[in-house]
Every structure is written in C-alpha cells, then in structure tokens.
Amino acid sequence: MPTIENLLKKLAEEARKFAERNELEESNFDKKNHNSADKEFKQLHLTNTFIAAMPQLDEPTFAGTLIYIYQHNSQGAAGLIINKKLDINLGSVFERMNFQERNPKFSEQSIYFGGPVKLEHGFILHKPYKNKRWESTLKINENIAVTTSKDILNEACEHNNVGKMLVALGQATWMPGQLEYEIQNNFWLTLPINYDIIFETPSELRYDAALEQFGFNSYQLVGNAARA
Asked: Strand, coil or helix: what is 86?
C-alpha cells in the first residue's frame, strides 16, 4: 500500500495534467458565460443531487464517475466523486495524524479520490450527528453534511459514536456557468439523490445504482452515445 505522501504526489501530477488539458476549454468561458450564470442557476438547482458522467465525457479524470454535488450557486459548483477508491485506507491517515486508534472498523475504510482540486485536503461526507459540532462543517440538510476539519476523524478513530462516512481527498469544482454548460452539452446526466447509494452501496455499484433509479443503465447510455 503506498504512503499518503507518494499518493498525493501522484494525484498532484494527475491534477496538473488535468489543468493543462482543460486550460483552453476553461478559457472559452468569457464574460458572456459568467454574466449568464445567474440566469442558468435559475434553471438548474443542483445542490444535493448526483451527476453521472456520460460516455462522451472521455476526460480520464472524470470518465465513469458519479459525483455528489454539495454546493451550487451563482459562484459555481463543488462536488465529490464517490466511486473512485484510492489504494489507501483511513488507518494510514490515523497513523499519519498520530491518532490513538480504538475503532478498527474505521481504519479499514477506503479513501476516495474526490476530484483534482485541493488534493491535500480531506472532505468527509456524513450524516449530521445530534449534539455534535465540528470545527468546519457545511450542513446540506438533515440527511447529509460535508466536514473538512480533522476533529470528526479523531472522533471516528477513538470512539464508536460516529456513523457512516465517506472520506475523500480533493474535490471537483466548476466556475460560474461551467457545469450548466457541460450538462447542456450532454457531458453529465443529472440524477436524484439517494443517500443509501453513498453510505450503503459498494463503490463499484454506485454509478449503475444511481442510473437505475432513473430508469437507465450504463449499457443504454453507451448505446445512445454511439447513435448520437
């Protein structure tokens, strides 16, 4: 199993290549695109939804991904890829942070590649806990929150009173109007949220599980893309 440091170096290199590949594409979002962000936002409210990569999205970083969008407004969008496991687990993080491990079940939990932005930061998707307040948390609703402070990991490591969570390194972000543009150009399929897919479904089945609740499967998407 690789060390976190080596993994971060590898992810940073992938992020650099991703930025280079998309530099020209992002430059196409001129003032007109930015000024239209508010108008587009009125049409799409994507906070607390899934987006699934369509087959025509052949960008290696995002191909075949299912992303949970936790924030979407006129300033842009942010989300976490929830179906790309990394070859490290929480035990490696606990060891690196010198946590006193008392909860082995969390040590075995996989860490995910959340996206190519802020790879050195951890993002934890979890259900909000009664009478618990973390240092840095964005509560989406009563069913889900995103925490970026390490106090929640310390609690999970040392005790058994923290529920299921998904831990990711990095996130995916879009500038104002960019995600709307990509959806309109059929790079992403928007899907309704299902929290069981995040917290109960095995990672390799999440993409298809999200499609199935919408009446699709991945084979149909490939077929439709081939005919387009």
From this structure: strand
